[in-house]
UniProtKB/TrEMBL annotation:
Residues of the Alpha-D-phosphohexomutase alpha/beta/alpha domain: 14-153, 184-286, 295-407
GO BP terms in the entry: carbohydrate metabolic process
Keywords of the record: Isomerase, Magnesium, Metal-binding, Phosphoprotein
Residue ranges that the Swiss-Prot or TrEMBL entry lists as coiled coil: none
GO cellular component terms given for this protein: cytosol
Similarity comment text for this entry: Belongs to the phosphohexose mutase family.
Protein name as catalogued: phosphoglucomutase (alpha-D-glucose-1,6-bisphosphate-dependent)
């Protein structure tokens, strides 16, 4: 074994996006591409001697190859120890859990989350810091800057390590420990939720379907829901992670998880349905013939948090991303706790969680989580719902409708225009920015604009700022239209339009969502000239 120094030159475009560096597999397969980025991470972290790193991914195509390379590079860069998931598998929340439990310096996660996988799909890499959460902007920016000046990287020429069996071995001086991907995470879940109550629920004939979408949640859901909680075999479907996610799009929304939605719409549907994404940090909650929006799910878990042993003492605060509906704000007001509004991206919750200001966090993009780790957590959200269903003894629909009766309903929808021309998308956003100042007081379709701005955020803990985080048009009745460009796509640009309308009157709680939002949808299109700018008369995805 010897450590080699390989000459390289900077490769363009290695700036991490909303959640790490994501590119087509082919891009990552280029000579030196992954190596340049990984060396830039190590260079940014500084002295690695005596340090432990966690390493794992969602099992998508190129996962194994990347793990092999990173292990050899970590050894060559003086890392003392790496904890790697067996088979290279660790869900994103599990990496966060393991970093925290073993007080590692940080971790490297290989995933492109909900983006499709396979040789023609996407791959991704991100670095998480010692609190278990995504690296903050200052760190990702430093990594990026390093990629622009890199001249060489270090790698061991050691043979490939066996990562398919537990146990310890060495690469150069570095100890590699292959860990069970599920154990530490399952133990944490057992502390947070009332497993006895959930076991009784299943023993009493409660039925559920968890669609792991051929992605990494499979082993976790199977071991916990079928294993520890005694749900019948077959409760968790599509549970073996595949390199191409079975050719599907592992994003748990009603469009991509159509198989589950169809099942839940039947008369003989299970009591409860759930799905999660490629790396198991997202979740979708479905009742019998009844979908739950992620924004409502956050509000409902917050309103009922004390049912779970881990939150029995109450929650300190709630945090949601700006485009997420304001249903959670109403719960926070009723509980007398703060509700923080952050830019899109889980990383913005980190400081609030670390400072103990927020306990639960959520995003409209099917992400929910808490201070138990520093990532959103799909299986956690599903277990929280199971705990709630077990304690309440009501159906999903009853729980949601009672919540609306108490707090009012925030009708909510997101319209995506995927794969549009990047320049056209920029023009659309620039035009909107120009219009903002003149919008106050304007009347449209029975709505009056209260204010319009481009969301800016100052972190209340560390004072860091983020500008241009989404254009919002807020009406005098609290209804909102928000526009932003996706930070996670890999092809062209994706325009997201978020629509929200508050309705206090329970008599008005059962209008089909698109109908309830029709006037706002028309305003959104005309203000931004979406059809004109994008050439699309309809969104590609509506959630
Ligand atoms: C990832 C992040 C989320 C974020 C989402 C936004 O999933 O982990 O925290 O909400 O991306 O994606 P977008 O495509 O809207 O930028
Ligand atoms: Zn994800």
């Amino acid at each position: 074994m010897a450590i080699q120094t390989i000459q390289t030159t900077p490769i363009d475009g290695q700036r991490p996006g909303t959640s790490g560096l994501r590119k087509k597999v082919g891009v990552f397969q280029q000579a030196h591409y992954l190596e340049n980025f990984v060396q830039s991470v190590f260079d940014t972290l500084g002295d690695l001697s005596g340090k432990t790193l966690v390493l794992g991914g969602d099992g998508r195509f190129h996962n194994r190859a990347a793990i092999r390379t990173i292990l050899k590079m970590a050894a060559a860069n003086g890392v003392a120890r790496v904890l790697v998931g067996r088979g290279g598998i660790l869900s994103t929340p599990a990496v966060s859990c393991v970093i925290r439990k073993y007080e590692a310096m940080g971790g490297i996660i290989l995933s492109a989350s909900h983006n499709p996988g396979g040789p023609d799909g996407d791959f991704g890499i991100k670095y998480n810091i010692g609190n278990g959460g995504p690296a903050p902007e200052a760190v990702t920016e430093a990594i990026y800057q390093r990629t622009t000046t890199i001249t060489s990287y270090r790698i061991s020429d050691a043979p490939d390590l066996d990562i398919d069996h537990g146990g310890r071995s060495y690469v150069e001086q570095m100890q590699v420990e292959v860990i069970d991907p599920v154990d530490d995470y399952a133990q944490l879940m057992e502390q947070l939720f009332d497993f006895d109550a959930i076991r009784k629920l299943f023993a009493g004939g409660f039925t559920m379907r968890f669609d792991a979408m051929h992605a990494v949640a499979g082993p976790y859901a199977k071991a916990i829901i079928e294993g520890r909680l005694g749900a019948p075999e077959g409760t968790v479907i599509n549970c073996v992670p595949r390199e191409d996610f079975g050719g599907g799009h592992p994003d748990p929304n009603p469009v991509n998880a159509a198989e589950l939605i169809e099942l839940m719409a039947r008369d003989d549907a299970p009591d409860f349905g759930a799905a999660s994404d490629g790396d198991a940090d997202r979740n979708m909650i479905v009742g019998r013939k009844f979908d739950v929006t992620p924004s409502d799910s956050l509000a409902i878990l917050a309103a009922n948090a004390q049912v779970a042993p881990g939150y029995r003492g109450g929650i300190a605060g709630i945090a949601r991303s700006m485009p997420t509906s304001r249903a959670a704000d109403r719960v926070a007001a009723a509980l007398g706790i703060p509700c923080y509004e952050t830019p899109t991206g889980w990383k913005y919750f980190g400081t609030l969680l670390d400072a103990g200001l927020a306990t639960l966090c959520g995003e409209e993009s099917y992400g929910t989580g808490s201070n138990h780790v520093r990532e959103k957590d799909g299986v956690w959200a599903v277990l929280f719902w199971l705990n709630l269903l077990a304690v309440k003894g009501q159906s999903v629909q009853q729980i949601v409708e009672e919540h609306w009766q108490r707090f009012g309903r925030n009708y909510y929808s997101r319209h995506d225009y995927e794969g549009i021309d990047a320049h056209a998308a920029k023009v659309l956003m620039d035009d909107l920015r120009v219009k903002l100042a003149a919008m106050q007081g304007v009347e449209m379709n029975h709505y009056t604009v209260d204010f319009a701005d481009d969301f800016e955020y100052t972190d209340p803990v560390d004072g860091s700022k983020a500008a241009q985080q989404g254009i919002r048009i807020v009406m005098t009745d609290g209804s909102r239209i928000v526009y932003r460009l996706s930070g996670t796509g890999t092809e062209g640009a994706t325009l997201r339009v978020y629509l929200e309308r508050y309705e206090a009157d329970p008599e008005q709680h059962h209008i089909p969502t698109q109908q309830a939002l029709a006037a706002l949808i028309a305003i959104a299109d005309s203000v931004a000239s979406i059809a004109y700018n994008t050439g699309r008369s309809n969104p590609t995805v509506i959630t």
